[in-house]
Amino acid sequence: MAWFETWFDTPYYHILYKNRDFTEAEKFITLLVNYLEIPKDSKIIDLACGKGRHSVFLNKLGYKVLGVDLSKESIFHNKQIENSNLKFEVHDMRKELFPKISTQKVEAVFNLFTSFGYFDLEKDDRSVFRSVSNVLKEEGIFVLDFLNQQWIRNTLEAEYETKKGNIDFLIRKKIEGEHIIKDIFFSDKGKKHHYFEKVKLHTLEEMENYAQEFGFERVAIFGNYDLGKFELQKSPRCISIFRKKPEQL
After folding, report:
1. Are 116 and 175 in the same domain?
2. How is residue 48 annotated by DSSP?
């Protein structure tokens, strides 16, 4: 079983990341939809939605939102907050969204806060782009908010400790080949635990090649959550805005 199939379903994942800055996230999403000028009532898929906070916020902004995630525990939680314009489904992003999950094509797909790069095989990465392309309308928008691999290499902090509630987490990071690996050690109720996260350090060129293969063009790229200019050596984020090109007759 892949690391993300176990770690994301544990309560410890949500404990470790419970203090994420959702004010920053909501500001980013607001800037993003204003920049994209997506009409209200458009349908947006939140790909790898987790506990659904971003889906809920997009819905509050006036969009019809479908949040999908591989974590059954997260989707079980999210089902309790559904409404007529906010739905959640368990789904593996490598598999087709349309028509199995979404019964109609959509205006936009958002993949936010480094929810890509989990897979070892290139064919799985390509499958994500394929499924997103197939579910989007022509001229539809795919937002891929990913880490900037060069910034990660420049600023890697090898080890640190953080306390969340009554749990002390020891975090160790390393780069092995094309991946950044985060080892997570902690003890709870007398039992030692070790989980890890592994994300492929995709380059701009790799993502551009996937995009072109499946009918996208990159129309913008930002380097932070304020939609600032992307600089390869300095920007913490690599936020690509892809547009699905019309099919050629």
Report:
1. no
2. T
Residues 144, 111: Cα–Cα separation, whole Å: 5
CATH of the domain at 86: 3.40.50.150
Is 113 inside a domain boundary?
A: yes
- Three-state secondary structure call for residue 178: coil
The Cα–Cα gap between 68 and 102 comes to 10
Q: Are residues 37 and 66 in the same domain?
A: yes
Q: What is the mean pLDDT for each group of 10 consecutive residues in the chain (249 residues)?
A: 92 88 90 96 97 96 97 95 97 94 95 95 96 97 98 97 96 96 97 97 96 97 98 98 87
Query: Are the beta carbons of 68 and 45 closer than 8 angstroms?
Result: yes
Give the 3-state secondary structure percentages of the chain, helix then strand then coil, rounded to 5.
30, 35, 35
Q: Which domain holds residue 95?
A: 3-148+202-244
Same domain, 185 and 213: no
Tokens 């009532």 belong to residue: 41
Classify residue 37 as left (phi > 0), alpha (psi -120 to 50) or beta: left
The Cα–Cα gap between 233 and 42 comes to 36
pLDDT at residue number 94: 95
Q: Does residue 151 come out as left (phi exceeding 0), alpha (psi in the -120 to 50 range) or beta?
A: alpha
Same domain, 172 and 79: no
Q: How far is CA 194 from CA 7, 54, 70, 241, in A?
A: 10, 28, 21, 36
pLDDT of residue 21: 72
